[in-house]
Amino acid sequence: MLSEKLTEKLNDQMNNEFAAAHEYMAMAAYCEHRSYDGFANFYIQQAEEERFHAMKLYNYLNDRSVHATFKEIPAPKVNYDSIIDTFKAGLAQEREVTESFYTISDIATEEKEYATLSFVRWFLDEQVEEEATFERHIDYIERIKDDNNALFIYERELAKRSFDGGK
After folding, report:
1. pLDDT tens digits for 110-127?
2. 96, pLDDT greater than 80
């Protein structure tokens, strides 16, 4: 049985993942409103991925006979200074998620909750990929600077992104 402390952190993280999806949809809306459809698609797919992560946590809690509890999701930021600002906000959000999973991992280690450690390892590996993705996009966009043609080509590549359900 999961401890109250670990249950709380897992529930918090499930809610954080749903909130992250909400944030990414707000970023998509920002991009879409400015006719950056490729960037909007990137964030829509990112939101799908975050909902997938939230459901993994939801299912794990239920598999462990724990009540998955939902909290209010705060309103996301809706305005950004630029496209790169959205990616910097996304990177900061992913770094917070990584820290949260470190905390869960620390508690599970302390409590010798090996099943949770095994479960969380997937998320830790995923977070390496998530942070690297945002860092790479920031590097590319900074390299492009004000080259609208390059930005257009880059955006078209992001328009092709699709989330495959974690396969």
Report:
1. 999 999 999 999 999 999
2. yes
Phi, psi of 67 (to 5 degrees): -75, 115
Interatomic CA distance for residues 74 and 23, integer angstroms: 9
Residues 6 or more apart whose CB falls under 8 angstroms from that of 56 comprise 122, 123, 166
3-12 pLDDT, tens digit each: 999 999 999 9
To which residue do tokens 């390892």 refer? 121
Q: Per-residue pLDDT tens for 13-52?
A: 999 999 999 999 999 999 999 999 999 999 999 999 999 9
- Rounded Cα distance between 66 and 3, Å, is 10
CA dihedral 141, 146, 148, 152 (to 10 degrees): 10
> Sign of the CA dihedral 37, 39, 45, 50?
negative
DSSP state of 74: P
Number of other CB atoms surrounding residue 43 within 10 Å: 26
Q: How many CB atoms lie within 10 A of CB 82?
A: 11
CB 130 within 8 A of CB 16: no
Supply the pLDDT for residue 166.
58
Q: How far is CA 134 from CA 28, 35, 146, 150, in A?
A: 15, 21, 19, 18
